[in-house]
Amino acid sequence: MNISKHEQRVLHVLAQGGAIHYERAKNGKIRKIICFTRDGHVLTDCTMNIFQRLRKRRFVRSENSKPYRVTRLGIVCVRSQADNR
Asked: What distances in angstroms separate CA 84 from CA 22, 36, 81, one per listed residue?
């Protein structure tokens, strides 16, 4: 599946334990998102456009109004990367 470099980066962070926190507007639509790594840092590559594409492809999902996490399909589709800590 074709996944852009920025989508890969976001999925990789989520696969390592990160989460996408969101705020809803009064009409129920998501108006603001913030992607946190597992260490608590903010990932600036996660824009609303990338988030919408990941949701549309069902790579991320939220359950019971919790932050968005990567799905099994998202983990399968992300390419492995070296974790240079």
From this structure: 28, 18, 9
- pTM of the predicted protein model: 0.88
CA 85 to each of CA 6, 35, 39, 46, 81: distance values in angstroms, whole numbers, following the listed order: 20, 19, 12, 21, 12
Largest CA distance in the chain: 42
> Comparing C-alpha atoms, which of 69, 58, 8 is closest to residue 35?
69
- List the domain boundaries for the chain: 5-77
Tens-digit pLDDT string for the chain (85 aa): 688 899 999 999 999 999 999 999 999 999 999 999 999 999 998 999 999 999 999 999 999 999 999 999 999 888 776 665 5
DSSP, collapsed to helix, strand or coil, labels residue 26 as: coil
